[in-house]
Amino acid sequence: MAKNTVQKSTVTKSTDSISSDLLAEALKATVDGIVISEIIGDGCRIIFVNPAFESLIGYTADEVIGNDYWLYIQGTEEQPEIETLRQTIANRESCRVTFRNHKKSGEPFWSELSISPVFSGNGQLTHYIAVQKDVTQRVEKEQSIQERHESLLSLKDELQELASRDALTGLHNRRYFAQELDRLWAVHQRLEATMAVIFIDIDSFKLYNDHYGHLEGDKALKAVAGVIAESFSRKADLVARFGGEEFVVVATLENGVDCLLQHLEQLRQSIIDLKIENQYSAVSPYLTISTGVCYGIPPKDSSSSLFTRDADIAMYQAKKTGRNRIEVVSYEPDEELVLKPAS
Hints:
By secondary structure, the protein is an alpha+beta fold. The protein folds into two domains: 4-140, PAS domain (Beta-Lactamase, 2-Layer Sandwich), CATH 3.30.450; 164-341, Reverse transcriptase/Diguanylate cyclase domain (Alpha-Beta Plaits, 2-Layer Sandwich). The protein has ten helices and 13 strands. The strands form two sheets. Strands 1, 2, 3, 4, 5, 6 and 7 form a seven-stranded mixed β-sheet that branches. A hairpin with a 5-residue loop joins β6 and β7. α7 (205-212) packs across α8 and α8 (214-231) packs antiparallel against α9 (257-273). Residues 334-338 have low confidence and may be disordered.
């Protein structure tokens, strides 16, 4: 919230025909606190303060005159604006800063302080004039506006996050998946990097829902989603619920397809290890998954639907050939596009 400005302008002594009495009355009538300090060595000894300064800071003129002005702006917590003041005085310049100060009573307040040097006719720095005002209400209002703005931005981010998530499993939803897949597709296409799209479907889930009920079905979906998310937890991985009992993963093949297929085999076994009973499965006493994989370097002049389509086909092929298995489509260079089991 604090603001500082540094100016090169200075105040020079004038011989204008304004009487000293008139100037003194003007200074006394000013609503802002005014301090005039005389430069003595490295210090700024106060020689004048007006009533507004006394009211602002809580000290009387008799208490402050003769003291170094720094006594009334230091003793506060470390603030960069104080260093700005020091540098400004060292450079014999003008500046305006806003910082937290304290009154004689110890009460904190936001102070806007402007200082300007006064030079003699031969260019020697002789005095500093300081104008100080209490801007607590303004600063607190600005802070309140900033806090509300940040709160609204945070709420916007939360709403966007909620809109991109599946309510049941907490995974990304199909809409978010489609957006991110297109972005990842373009990145892999440009870098000529190998990526994989993986479709995962819970076997015989309709029968499971029909016989165990939808509440148990929801529990099973969340459990399976959790294992998939844990299995593909790298920052570069994308995991989403595609719909119903179907999940989809996008992964970069940093260590080759064999490593990916071993990982998917571990995932397949991890789902069985959940030991979610399914008496109506033809392949296992527990819930199982069928997986379809399409991997390769995204061909030029193609869209991401190429891999999603063929990964989906591979998944249904895994179901047709017995369920609880993995089928793969490869788009490796110089390799025929064939559907093949993972092992």
